[in-house]
Design a protein that fits this description.
Transmembrane segments: 25-44
Strand content: 15-25%
Enzyme class: hydrolase
Number of strands: 25
Domain Penicillin-binding protein dimerisation: 68-238
Domain Penicillin-binding protein transpeptidase: 271-587
Number of helices: 21
Organism: Anabaena lutea FACHB-196
Shape: elongated
């Protein structure tokens, strides 16, 4: 019996089928499942998610290159250019194109040719981000030597571009710095706050003055190009373009010739000169000294020398026309108004004046230490008698004097466009004194306030608004810079004063110039002037040096210009220091406006 039969060579078919059929079925099912899964995924990617993926692929191939708009021009009331745009050459980099290998060549070479720290450029690229399609400016205002050097090394400087750029330029320079202001690249903090408004890295923004106040009007709208790029992010061709929309031009109420004269009149003194149309609040001139050159802020970086010019101990960036100081005797306009409008004193009131008065145990002196004998309101204004107005302040009382101080606009902003730069000032009252000094209001506080001293703080612009009230017949005006040729009623509010009060104010202010402390303005080169001086006690670094004030308007019977001059810590009186400044400005103004009647005096050499 044979126990084992060897297979026959030549291959007879194996008839075994158990297990083989199940393997085949498993392979078929597995293949079907895999095919179905891949098909489903392909269908999902193509049908469901296809548009999103196509958009993502397209965005990797197509980029937007944004184009900054040109800012609007700024003109004075007569069409003279105050701010415009120039087109220097600047150097730009493509952040997406500068990978580490290429930057190791480009970075050091640019740093050498442009004298810019390499780290500074790297910081800008990092802020933009490697995928940014926006050109990043790293240098501005190239000179011819720099342009030539960059062209010599252009083989090394791949993806570095030299383009013209719109840069702000101020033809009048220092004379209008505090009016026009300046533009500057946004800081990182500003960019965070304003990114939602469409601002981008390297964008400029108004930082002060008109440039800041009318930023939205001047800025315009961004444009840009839709560009196809290669795998390295380099631009290949322009697919579409939207033109940037330039900002709107502005026409101001400023008279640039008057502004220049006021700047010259103020000279080297720290202080301010404000000129208004008293009938509608148009600001004709606004000068603050020390000043600065706003063109330095158009540079990419400020030199140490530039920084010193704007960071000096006298604070040249501070607009003194909008800063606070005690108004001194100019404030007697308000005290007169409060006395007459309260009913406590009649227009015919006559009071004896003295060398000094002792009230509440405190001695209050007269400025001439002798007094002027008996005076009415007009005579008291003419000679600026302190002891007369002490008696008015005491008789009226603190609440009524404070009420009229606020009605004249003190203690709040005037509504002028520079809201972030303008100080409110301070009108002290019972609440303020209790909070700050833990003491009640006394008659001595009313007496100090009656002559514009004590804790009272006002700006030269607010003082100009005060002078406009008697000048225009009893209206408080809102000073403004935008020329709109609108109705004067839009810019003024009646204080509902008695006609007799207005007449006494106007008569008194005229007497100041014709026969009193303001004779420096009683000249044939200008029409009749009405005004008031002020000399404020003040301390400067431990040394007592007066502030000098003078406010005036002309012609006295039908005013068309009002000027306030203020000299900070100048020493001397308002009539001797500040009034001559006003004379210089008025002579220029009336010689130009009324050349047939008034002649500007020849300059003495």
């Amino acid at each position: 019996m044979t126990l084992f039969q060897p297979p026959v060579l030549g291959g007879q078919n194996n008839t075994r089928t158990v297990g083989r059929n199940s393997q085949s079925i498993f392979l078929i099912i597995f293949t079907l499942l895999m095919t179905s899964g891949i098909g489903a995924r392909l269908a999902y990617l193509q049908i469901i998610d296809g548009s999103k993926l196509r958009q993502r692929a397209e965005s990797n191939r197509i980029r937007m290159i944004y184009k900054q708009p040109e800012r609007g021009n700024i003109f004075d009331r007569n069409g003279k250019l105050l701010a415009t745009t120039r087109y220097p050459r600047s150097v730009y980099l493509w952040p997406m194109a500068h990978t580490k290998p290429s930057w190791s060549v480009v970075g050091p070479r640019l740093s050498q040719l442009l004298d810019i720290p390499q780290k500074e450029m790297e910081t800008q690229l990092e802020q933009a981000g490697a995928n940014s399609s926006t050109l990043i400016r790293i240098a501005r205002d190239l000179n011819e030597a720099q342009v030539t050097a960059l062209k010599e090394y252009e083989n090394e400087l791949t993806d570095v571009e030299i383009n013209t750029e719109a840069v702000r330029y101020y033809p009048q320079g220092r004379e209008l710095a505090h009016v026009i202001g300046y533009t500057r690249e946004l800081t990182a903090e500003q960019l965070k706050k304003r990114k939602s408004e469409g601002y981008r890295l390297g964008d400029v923004i108004g930082q002060m003055g008109v440039e800041k106040a009318y930023e939205k009007t001047l800025r315009g709208e961004w444009g840009g190009q839709q560009v196809e790029v290669d795998g390295a992010g380099r631009p290949l061709r322009v697919l579409g373009e939207k033109q940037a929309k330039p900002g709107n031009d502005l026409h101001l109420t400023i008279d640039v010739e008057l502004q220049k004269t006021a700047e010259k009149a103020l000279g080297k003194r720290n202080g301010a000169i404000v000129a208004l149309n008293p009938n509608n609040g148009e600001v004709l001139g606004l000068v603050s000294h020390p000043t600065f050159d706003p063109n330095i802020f158009s540079k990419q970086t400020l030199s140490q020398k530039d920084w010193k010019t704007v960071q000096g101990e006298d604070h040249p960036l501070v607009n003194r026309a909008l800063s606070v100081f005690p108004p001194a005797s100019t404030f007697k306009i308000v005290t007169t108004t409060a006395g007459l409008e309260s009913g406590k004193f009649s227009p015919n009131t006559v009071l004896q004046t003295y060398g000094s008065l002792t009230i509440g145990g405190t001695r209050f002196g007269e400025w001439n230490h002798a007094g002027f004998g008996p005076l009415g309101f007009v005579g008291a204004m003419q000679w600026s008698s302190d002891t007369f107005f002490y008696q008015i302040g005491k008789g009226v009382g603190g609440p009524k004097l404070i009420e009229w101080t606020r009605k004249y606009g003190f203690g709040e902003k005037t509504g002028f466009e520079f809201s972030t730069e303008e100080a409110k000032g301070l009108v002290p009252d019972e609440t303020w004194k209790q909070k700050v000094w833990k003491m009640p209001w006394t008659v001595g506080d009313s007496i100090n306030m009656s002559i514009g001293q004590g804790a009272l703080q006002t700006t030269p612009l607010q003082v100009a608004v005060m002078f406009a009230v008697p000048a225009n017949g009893g209206y408080r005006v809102q000073p403004h810079l935008l020329k709109d040729n609108g109705d004067a009623k839009k810019w003024r509010k009646s204080l509902n004063m008695k006609p007799t009060t207005i007449k006494i104010l106007r008569d008194g202010l005229r007497k100041v110039v014709s026969e009193g402390t303001g004779k420096a303005l009683n000249k044939p080169t200008i029409p009749p002037v009405a005004g008031k001086s002020g000399t404020a006690e003040a301390w400067n670094r431990g040394v007592k040096e007066n502030h000098a004030w003078f406010g005036a308007y002309a012609p006295a019977d039908k005013p068309e210009i009002l000027i306030v001059a203020f000299a900070e810590h100048s020493g001397g009186g308002g009539g001797s220091v500040a009034a001559p400044m006003i004379l210089e400005v008025m002579e220029e103004y009336f010689a130009r406006k009324h050349s047939g009647k008034y002649q500007k005096p020849e300059t003495k050499h």
